[in-house]
Amino acid sequence: MKLEMGKFYVKDIVFGDETKFEDGVLTVDKANALEVVREDEHITSADLFIVRPGDKVRLCPVKDAFEFRCKVEGGKGIFPGVTSPLAKAGTGKTHVLSGCSLLVVGEHWGGFQDGLLDMSGKYQNQCIFGMMPNLVLVADTDEEFERYEQQKKNHALRWAGMRLAEHIGLCVKENTPDEEEVFELPPVNRRSAEVQKLPSVVYVLQPQTQMEQLGYNTLIYGWDGNRMLPTFMHPNEIIDGAVVSGSFMPVSSKISTYEWCNHPTIHRLMKEHGKTINFLGVIMSNLNPKMEEKERCAKMVAQMAVNLGADGAIVCEEGYGNPDVDYIQTIVELEEAGVKTVGISDECTGRDGASQPLVALDEKADALVHTGNVSELYHLDPMPVVLGELEALARDGNSGGWEGCIAEDGSVEMENNGYFCSNHISGFSKKTCADF
Amino acid sequence: MKKAIHYINQFFGQVGGEDAADYKPTFHDKLVGCSNMLNQIMPDVEVTHTIICGDNYIASHTDEAVAEIIEWLKNQEFDIFFAGPAFMAGRYGVGCGTIGKAVKETFGVPVITSMNEENPGVEMFQKEMYIFKGGRKATFMKDDLGKMAAFAQKIAKGEELLPAAVEGYFPRGIRKEIFHPEGIPAADRAVDMLIKKLEGRPFQTELVIPKREKVPVAPPIKDLSKATIALVGSSGVVPSHNPDKIQTASATKWGKYDISGLDRLPKGEYKTIHAGYDPEAICEVPDRGMPVDAMRAYEKEGKIGKLHEYYYVTVGTGTTQAYAAKFGREIAAELKEAGVDGVLLVAT
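Output (structure tokens, whole complex):
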């Protein structure tokens, strides 16, 4: 499977009369963009803003992040089975406005799964989106059924984000990219003898799919990840829009839709392919609420890895707490099957830092990378501008906020749990955890 | 300028050696021995007093020693508490840990000490305070004091305190997130780690999961009526004068007591010294904690062949896994030597 990714490097975003990309500047026709947002009658109000690194701006409640993209050849759109017709992702040509993102923020209402993000100050570098220019969609909806629910599907806002990401991405469909990157991996049994001599590696993904009710979980080609069993995927599919982030778990452990498309661990494995490893591909697993489901998936993943001929594996868990059981069990099954395994997750050690970092432990999990601690307490200075509604952090059951966590002057005390994507389990995280 | 107080034992306090180990706490505003050296190497911390206490005294009169020192400290101003360094000296290490823990709990100030990794005080107290990794003996005095002083300086100057492995103290069981020292993203750390693991090269996990020690289950006793059974437990039931001075908590030793000719453990002659539960019921009937009476009855019935002539006991509360495992190995070796076939391990 071969994917050509044409990249247009964005240095800045501005508003203008026409949506276009020129000399590193993305110009957005605001009125036209808002029309795309309002295609969904459930969007009751919407506005767009531009934020840049260093701006004294706080965003809350952030729902998801997207990259501006369009399909040029192959495929029928950037999120097949979701906002685009169902088609195969990962082949042909995709154009990408690289180095910026689209952030979707609730105008008033947040929930357990939403996050806060600062564009400057002490915590700016907790999240990659604090370090790049972003177009920000702030909108409200008439989804009354979940307005006062702690757990929100955020359907209208997330789908508006996906439509807008493609609408703006289309402005570079006919342009010549600044740079072209080719992602290609032949079928696993059609590789050169030299490559086959290298240790073979699979990447096991455990996206968050623990909500039994549909509409909250990670989507794979539009299919709810709660209703699937582990399956084999080509890495190109993942980085070309086959996976859309859900709306469920504490947000610091979230892999945003932007990160599914820009997945550093996949990129690095692709780079190593043919040099130090033979990258077989991705085993897309999931995370489950019941013990039997956890065991079933762990065993199926190990079986698949073994029969693909894997010598090594990286397991990535999107979430913490209960799904640590799925995560450790999968690592154990792989190790017992003779597949040398490394895990990537964050941890939860409680306010005093003294709790067991993962819910499940096993000495077979002897190679773990840790990307942050959801219990870490953050003290945020007041920020002059808030896009959205800061009170959502305290009022709406956010995983990292609580009643009274916002002081009168706008300063905030919160847990890492609620800081948007700050543990970057996709591999962006420059954090680790240490013993003190 | 921050103020500090320094606790040392009778030997480093220049009172005497083993003969002076029962020395009661004394308090000195003229610094004694290594307190001077400690004071000289910290520009921003002043050591104002030396406390000297005998290792045996604090071990055997823990409550009195701790109470006396804490009472005295209540009238002092200090920001940091030092103890040791204790090197490999086990009783000194436990003394430093005992007083350090009490000081931290009472005053909430940072407590800094130093011990060798083989000092039992490390496992007993590493969660309670900063125990720096020290040398085996007093020739390392300068190095060990230097590490303690450097850390106190960082506290005094309000500098960022780095992870245990970087600062050089034994981890306190606390985990926090930090930015990776070399700024390497998780994706690269994971792939690099996997390549090393695949190539059989050494790699460092970011969460060390302790290995579980699994003890194989012994084969069943074929004929109980011919077997010699021993009583072993952690109830702290000992002869009333506690001849082996087993600690009331965080035990570092066990005892064995001859029960040949006894049908039960008489009240008054035996009692429990266990500080982890209300002792009244067991002191009233010591067999409740070490059931000699029931075992004798089984012996008479012929249910068991013989009750072993000694029972073995320690105190379970606060006792570390490492000590418990050590006791187990030592007691098992003796029982095997004595031809004991089975053990009734009595829980409390």
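Residues 224-346 of chain B form one domain.
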